[in-house]
Amino acid sequence: MNTVVVHWNIINHGGNFPAKRKGCSVTTSSETVCPPGTVITGKWQKNQYIVERLLGRGANGSVYLVYRRGHPDRYALKVGYDTLELQSEVNILRALNRQLPSSYFIEADDYKSVSGEAAFYVMRYVEGVQLHQFIRARGREWLGLVGLKLLERLSSLHSLGYIFGDLKPENVMVSPYGSVELIDYGGVSAPGRSVKQFTEWYDRGYWNAGSRTGDEAYDLFSFAVMCIQLLDEESLRGASAQLPQIRSVQDLEAVLRKSSQLKPYAAWLGRALGGGFANSREALNAWKKGVYARAVPRKRNKTPRWLQRSFFLSIVFAGAALYLFLKT
Ligand SMILES: Nc1ncnc2c1ncn2[C@@H]1O[C@H](COP(=O)(O)OP(=O)(O)OP(=O)(O)O)[C@@H](O)[C@H]1O
Question: Which SUPFAM superfamilies does the UniProt record give (predicted)?
Answer without folding.
Answer: Protein kinase-like (PK-like)
